[in-house]
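Researcher: I'd like a structural prediction for the single chain below. Treat it as a standalone chain; there are no partners to consider.
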Amino acid sequence: MDRDMAKQRVPAPKPTAPRRSHQGVLLSGIWALAHPRTGYHGAFPYGFLERARVAIGCGEEDSVLHVCSGAVAKYPYWGFGPCDYTLDIRTDVDPDFCQDARDEWSIPPDCAFGYGGVIIDPPYDRENQERYGVAESKLPTCKQLLQNAEKALRVGGRVGILHWIVPAPVEGLIQIGVFGVIAGTNCRIRAFTVYEKRV
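Model: Treating it as a single chain, here is the predicted structure.
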């Protein structure tokens, strides 16, 4: 009888949800991609944009804003959608919005509640900034870019930033993932960090 009572006291194990880290990161992985051969300095590795779009939760018809976009609209593989917009300070890449990325971003009428997603690929350092012909005084910080993304996103929208560092989240965004991005040998590994806008 004592053994029967003891059995009743042992609770059955409960199924558990995936554990979140102290910052709530759930998504992670390594993307080993092919080095781009487009002749454009800073072009995304082959396969990057497709994976990035999935990571920020956007389908082909969702509006994604590409910030510090360069020639992304000419990306030779799937990933740039028909409802996407580009923002860059340089006129030679013919962006939809030619403006300083440090200023508040434009939101077109068809995105009245904000963009579904944002992908940011800023110059990582002074050397890259010089290659793009952007004045050092206009080099945006990750914090400035993420603050602008938070304002431009709809609630529940996501922003991903490709950089050598994993930027700290800003108010209104929580970090939900980080992916290592490798583009062949003798290349620095980069991080694509994903954040989500919460209410």
